[in-house]
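Q: I'm building a small set of examples for a reading group on sequence design. Run inverse folding on the following structure and report the sequence directly after it, with nothing in between.
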């Protein structure tokens, strides 16, 4: 019988044409003191429901004042700095919307505080910036401030994550398909287990985040198709290594028969591995626990190459270029798509072949840009 499988779905598993998002420091599990070089990471798409509501394309707003060739002012209300993925995403925006490229970027790290993020956007409106980009901490509670931005004539781009709001209140949205990521992870697990039972523990991301909601929904869609799978428990690790470790320690005290752990980003996976190391639980291709992780950051993929994370679903953090393309079209008075999908891949440890993922190699790791 195949080894125990503890699938840590960490931040973003997107297969083939599927796609997906935190903490500046990339702390590897205590058991491994030689972390990989580091850099890479997760985004988020509008949930299927929001995408369905959105029109095929949004009409361009009136050209911003900077349309004459002057500096374009852009406000970016970022989620925070909770993960390696988020750090890579932030750097990508700062590099793209730089003074050298003709932009003035007003960047605010909202530190995972929804109220702070709302007030940050209001501040951008008061400053009369040309464009506003929002990576929403929570999907709910955006209608009022989005209406304020629309009334002020400022185009708003919803990036990485989704909002539960009338699509007419913002100009466009871009990111990964989180539901598809969760389904990709589930499909890979079904392929890997090949009919074997699964007792699953889930370490979710931040409560209310569209990435958390989408990945959970997608994975549960596949769980419902496998009668011999059971989700024993599901708790938030808040997309952090400390959170992942705390939740995993609690799980270990409460359950002894789990064989699948789903973590919704790489940092949570590192924390879960720390907890399993301390408890004497082996994991990876040669252990009792199979780890599936979301985000596919550089360190996460190093652990995949090492066979400790069995499957890692990518969430591409390099999304600023997509946002810039939208802004350039709006500057030219062109219409833009209501939704832009950022496509990602999924990766599996060496020796494993899958129709849902790419087999990891040193060459693949060396070719990563984040």
């Amino acid at each position: 019988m195949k080894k125990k499988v503890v699938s840590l779905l960490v931040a973003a598993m997107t297969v083939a044409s599927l796609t997906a998002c935190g903490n500046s420091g990339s702390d590897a599990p205590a058991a491994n003191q030689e972390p990989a070089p580091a850099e890479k990471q997760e985004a988020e798409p509008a949930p299927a429901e929001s995408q369905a509501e959105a029109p095929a394309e949004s009409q361009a707003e009136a050209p911003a004042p900077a349309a004459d060739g002057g500096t374009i002012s852009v406000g970016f209300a970022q989620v925070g700095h909770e993960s390696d993925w988020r750090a890579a995403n932030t750097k990508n925006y700062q590099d793209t919307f730089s003074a050298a490229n003709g932009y003035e970027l007003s960047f605010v790290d909202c530190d995972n505080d929804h109220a702070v993020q709302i007030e940050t956007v209001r501040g951008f409106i008061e400053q009369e910036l040309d464009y506003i980009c929002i990576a929403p901490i929570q999907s709910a509670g955006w209608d009022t401030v989005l209406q304020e931005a629309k009334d002020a004539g400022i185009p708003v781009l919803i990036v990485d994550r989704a909002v539960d709001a009338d699509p007419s209140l913002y100009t466009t949205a871009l990111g990964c398909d989180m539901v598809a990521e969760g389904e990709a992870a589930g499909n890979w697990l079904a392929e890997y287990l090949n009919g074997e039972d699964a007792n699953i523990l889930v370490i979710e991301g931040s409560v209310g985040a569209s990435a958390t909601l989408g990945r959970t929904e997608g994975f549960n869609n596949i769980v419902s198709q496998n009668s011999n799978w059971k989700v024993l428990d599901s708790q938030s690790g808040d997309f952090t290594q400390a959170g992942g470790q705390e939740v995993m320690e609690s799980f270990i005290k409460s359950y002894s028969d789990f064989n699948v752990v789903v973590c919704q980003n790489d940092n949570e996976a590192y924390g879960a591995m720390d907890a399993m190391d301390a408890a004497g639980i082996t994991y990876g291709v040669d252990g009792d626990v199979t780890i599936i992780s979301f985000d596919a950051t550089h360190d996460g993929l190093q652990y995949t190459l090492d066979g400790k994370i069995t499957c890692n679903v990518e969430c591409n953090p390099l999304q600023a270029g997509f946002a810039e393309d939208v802004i350039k079209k709006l500057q030219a008075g062109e219409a833009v798509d209501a939704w832009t999908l950022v496509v990602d891949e999924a990766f599996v440890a060496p020796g494993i072949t899958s129709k849902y993922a790419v087999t990891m190699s040193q060459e693949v790791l060396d070719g990563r840009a984040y």
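Residues 45 and 176 are 4 Å apart (CA to CA).
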